[in-house]
Every structure is written in C-alpha cells, then in structure tokens.
Amino acid sequence: MREVEFWFEFGSTYSYPAAMRVEACAAERGVTVLWRAFLLGPIFQKQGWDDSPFNLYAAKGRYMWRDLERVCAAQGIGLRRPSVFPRNGLLAARVASRFAAEDWLPDFVRSIYRANFSEDLDISSSEIVGSCLAKIGQDAGAVLSEAASPNSKDLLRAQTARAVDAGIFGAPSLLVGAELFWGNDRLDDALAWAARSP
Amino acid sequence: MREVEFWFEFGSTYSYPAAMRVEACAAERGVTVLWRAFLLGPIFQKQGWDDSPFNLYAAKGRYMWRDLERVCAAQGIGLRRPSVFPRNGLLAARVASRFAAEDWLPDFVRSIYRANFSEDLDISSSEIVGSCLAKIGQDAGAVLSEAASPNSKDLLRAQTARAVDAGIFGAPSLLVGAELFWGNDRLDDALAWAARSP
Fold first, then answer.
1. Quick check: helix, strand or coil at residue A150?
2. Which of B59, B167, B185 lies closest to A63 in CB terms?
3. ipTM
4. By the CB < 8 Å criterion, does B185 face chain A?
5. In order along chain B (198 residues), what is the average pLDDT of each group of 10 residues?
6. Measured between CB atoms, does A59 come within 8 Å of chain B?
7. CB-CB neighbours of B90 under 10 Å
8. pTM of the entire structure?
C-alpha cells in the first residue's frame, strides 16, 4: 500500500488548496492519504514568531494573498480573504487528529477549510466546527465532547511534536517515509515519490 | 514584444535552477527575459535578518538543501553545496546590472551560478568573477573596472530599491508588468502570464 502523510494546519492558507485536492490527486496515482493535523503555533514560537510570518513580513503577506487568489482560481475553488488571519484551528485539529481514520474525516477537513477560506466563518468556535460536523452527518455533540477529552488533547500535542521531529516547519507538508515535501507546490512531487516507492 | 523581468541574487539557492533555465523556457513561449540583478541583504536586513533565513531557521535550511538536490537532479544540473553560504554576490551583481543589456550577460550569469553552486568557488572574489568573464570571451579587467565605478554602484543600489518598490522580498522573483511571481516554482506561471499579455 503506497501512502503519503498529509500534514496540515487549519489556519494555513496554502494548506487550503492542498487539502481540497490531495485525496483526488492521490487516488489517481493509487496512493492512500494519511491525514495528519498539527499546530503551527508552537513551531512558529520556537522560531521566535508570535504570529504568522505573512503578518510579520508585510511584503510576503501581500504577495501571498495575491498568489493564493491565482492558485485558487486555477484550481476552481472559492476564496474569500478571512477577516481574521490566522484563525485558531485548535478545536478542529483536535477533532481531525482524534478521528483521523474515520471515513468522514476528509469531508470534515474540507468543510472546515471551506468555512475558513471560502465562507469567512470563525472556525475557532465550537458552533462552526459543530455545524461542519452536522453537515456531513456526524453527531456534533458526541464528537466535540470526545475532542475535548484529555486523551484527544494529548494526541494532538504528540502529533505536533512528531511533526517537529520529522523536520516539519510549515504547512502543508507531505511525508513519504522520511522524505519531506513542503508546500502545496510540492504535492504532485510527493505523490509521484509515493507512487514509485517500493 | 512580450517580456518578463527576472530578478535574481547570486547568493540565492533557488535562483540557481531558475537562472539556468529561464532563457530557454522563455524562448519556447516567445517571451524576452530582462535580467535584473539585485541584492537580498538590504531587504533581509529590513526584515530583521542579518543572515539568510535558511541559516537562521535550521529546519527550513535542512529542508531547502535536500529540496534543492531534488530540483537540480530533475533539471539535470550539477549541485555541490557551497562551503560558504550565502556567498556575497555584490561584485557579480554590479557587473550584471551594469551590463544587463549585453549579449553575453546571460552566459555570464549562468557562469557565476555554476561557479557558486556547482563548483563551490568564491564568487565574491574578483579573481573568480574575472575568470567567469574571461571564459565567455570578455575583457575581465575592463568589465571589472567599469563595475567598480560610482555609476555602477549607484545603478545596483537603485535596482535593489526598485525591487523593494515592486514588492519583491525574495529571489528569484519574476515581474510581468506589476504582476509578481516569487520563486523558481512560479517561473512557468510567470512566463505563461507574459505570453498571454496584450
């Protein structure tokens, strides 16, 4: 079974187009996606950043929003610049790490990204995360309650630590074994690498 | 005449594969390359960095060198990790901005990049820059003397200021009118944009 680990953060702009297409692109190559939610905040803090580099470095930020417009237009997905950036994806990431292996997980991930980047909704709130769960037929109360458990919190913390150990410093990132690929721009390269793995 | 401005810095890693292919890729689309040397140092300093971000942020640096191996291998160009990074490209950039419109300029640019990233030579020295000039049939003494003139120094300074004004924050960058594309990964997009410009 050929696999790629897709490491994503719900607040990350370029994770949005990547998350929307990774499953379909992987399927074309016979590759299975392992969904790995993590948090960029603790990683950025270790680099001395208390905010997104796109906010800290103005020219880089201006460029990113324009580039993201081009990328989303080319991919045919909506983009409405979030009125709050970056949004806190902690709760959604707890759901995504706790329920990573569920059939409904990819739909949930895409629903959260759409809410954040296409509908400008506050994905840090349990109301919005709950409505994304309900939309895909899940019991929002039960899922959110489980996501708030100490075990789920530990799980996301451990997963973020694993990201650091694997050399991840930004999102999205893709791992094929120990081979790391960073960015939406490397998604196809990562899948090609996975497809030719032994 | 369809044109793309190719903004490059001789110390920049991803500028290397971009510089080696931009002219051939542009020709395929009927686009003319305008070569724009500039310096990243003053731009990085304004962002609070006194070194390359690839040195300041270790995980990012480790990834970049591995990624660059993959990129150069795919493009079929040599890569020997420079023993000094980033190398100071000031002198070469003065030559490249002063003689930007000469027929021999693209060969000179590629020769400097090859020296830095494939041959691990000290491109900050006038000996190496001079030998790159001699190799392409230029009078090294005359060119280096002109490059050291106050006018040439002003020219590069003004060009770096123009880069900032255009929103450039990294290298390589490509400009089609006011439309900015950042990175070797956006080279094809920039040329496609130029090719369909009115």
1. helix
2. B167
3. 0.94
4. yes
5. 94 98 97 98 90 92 98 98 96 98 98 98 98 98 98 97 96 97 98 90
6. yes
7. 18
8. 0.96
